[in-house]
Amino acid sequence: MSLISQWVDNTLEATGMDAVDALRAFFLLAAATLTPTPRMQTISISIPTPLRSRFLTYGPRATSASTSTSSAPPNAQNPSDESKGFLDYLATWQVPHSYFTHFYVASVLSSVFWVVQLLSRGVMFQAITSRVSEEHQRRSMSLTQLVICCALLAIQGSRRLWESFIFSKPSSSQMWFMHWLLGLGFYLAAGVAIWIEGSGALLTNKLNIAHLQMTNAPSLRTFVLIPLFLVASGLQHDSHHYLFSLKKYTLPEHPMFRGVVCPHYGAECIVYLSLALLAAPQGELVNKTMLSCLAFVAVNLGLTARNTKQWYAQKFGKDSVQDWWLMIPYVY
């Protein structure tokens, strides 16, 4: 057994789960740090305010958050000067906000890497599939589904990478280094999640170039969901282009932003929802691994959208966004 196979095998053995369940657990545990707060009827991070104000905001929102925290009454802030000093020290572990580009580099490289691994049945492919249970192998995606979904995820990652270059502006904004690490982990894990529930078909029939030729008529599911993916992707691109075109931070006036704080976040959730439905194994309504991936995306972006709405309210007045939806009209 190679060192890579042994490392993967030992890691999964330590979790007591097979590879599919371990991936689902990763996404859900990451999302579990963000929980609904019924009293506030919104999304709130499930850690104390001193941590949230230091580590969970970034970009222009971080400035507002730090100002708000510093102006709060002493008793409402930190439990002690000692803990405050420690938290302030951790908060200094920052990386440039431009490191967001690394997420999409990781996504594209992951897509390329796994195409090679799946076609060649490489070491990493064998190491992971050897840890997929027979139950998960029996309920497998078809090879056609797998090829389509891998291609769509590669398109999403490539588009976001392209946008991160052409829509970038000089900025001194920073983010906490753990955000950066978690983001890298998410995109690398998504590269595995998109195909792992097709491991049964991959082990039974070797994937080759011929499977890239779509000769059969598309199913109703494919006929509906691929256009949904493309529309959501296009709407997200248009939102990013509009935000980039703004000369300064102003309240968005584009039709897509009419009554919605972050429509581009809603579009990204629809992108991952369409992938979760497209990748559903035979006899299943949805791909549960990609659904877990969507849960992380939705909760993470939901929190950021809420912080953006608060920032808009502070900058442009509470009434300016009072009745605005956060991501998707009439949904959230």
Automatic annotation (TrEMBL):
Its EC number is 1.3.1.94. It catalyses: a di-trans,poly-cis-dolichal + NADP(+) = a di-trans,poly-cis-polyprenal + NADPH + H(+). It is found in: Endomembrane system; Endoplasmic reticulum membrane. Keywords: Endoplasmic reticulum, Membrane, NADP, Oxidoreductase, Transmembrane, Transmembrane helix. Residues 199-332 form the 3-oxo-5-alpha-steroid 4-dehydrogenase C-terminal domain. Residues 62-72 have a biased composition (Low complexity). GO terms for biological process: dolichol-linked oligosaccharide biosynthetic process; polyprenol catabolic process. Residues 61-80 are annotated as: Disordered. It is a multi-pass membrane protein. It comes from the Eukaryota. It is an enzyme of class 1 (oxidoreductase). GO terms for molecular function: 3-oxo-5-alpha-steroid 4-dehydrogenase activity; polyprenal reductase activity; polyprenol reductase activity. The chain crosses the membrane at residues 99-119, 140-157, 177-196, 217-236, 256-280. The keyword Transferase does not apply. InterPro entries: 3-oxo-5_a-steroid_4-DH_C, Dfg10/SRD5A3. Coiled coil: none annotated. The keyword S-adenosyl-L-methionine does not apply. Pathway: Protein modification; protein glycosylation. One of its GO terms (cellular component) is endoplasmic reticulum membrane. Plays a key role in early steps of protein N-linked glycosylation by being involved in the conversion of polyprenol into dolichol. Acts as a polyprenal reductase that mediates the reduction of polyprenal into dolichal in a NADP-dependent mechanism. Dolichols are required for the synthesis of dolichol-linked monosaccharides and the oligosaccharide precursor used for N-glycosylation. Belongs to the steroid 5-alpha reductase family. Polyprenal reductase subfamily. This is Polyprenal reductase. It comes from Penicillium patulum.
